[in-house]
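STRUCTURE:
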């Protein structure tokens, strides 16, 4: 099942990447409508979409299997607000120290 999830993740990631590239081409005013229709990215998008659609039945079966076994996702442990504020303050202090060191280096140059 883990390999299926990884496969689907990679397919979706590739699909999003190609879709983003297609949109960039589409907004490019120098490209004609025919140039866009014949661009290889459209063939890739079509192939990826068909592959994802082909995985839909298997995805549905796996979803049912997971639900039938009552898998529970781990609960997210949330830190107290005080701990969060302490960590945030530590980060701010580190940032300020880094800025001071940078200013000292620039002054000495």
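SEQUENCE:
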């Amino acid at each position: 099942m883990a390999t299926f999830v990884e496969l689907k993740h990679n397919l979706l990631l590739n699909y999003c990447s190609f879709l983003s590239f297609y949109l960039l081409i589409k907004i490019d005013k120098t490209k004609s409508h025919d140039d866009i229709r014949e661009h290889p990215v459209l063939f890739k998008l079509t192939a990826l979409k068909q592959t994802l659609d082909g995985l839909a039945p298997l995805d549905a079966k796996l979803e049912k299997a997971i639900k039938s076994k009552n898998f529970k996702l781990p609960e997210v442990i949330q830190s107290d607000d005080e701990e969060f504020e302490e960590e945030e303050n530590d980060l701010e202090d580190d940032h300020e120290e880094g800025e001071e060191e940078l200013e000292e280096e620039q002054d000495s140059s």
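REMARK: Residues 8 and 55 are 8 Å apart (CA to CA).
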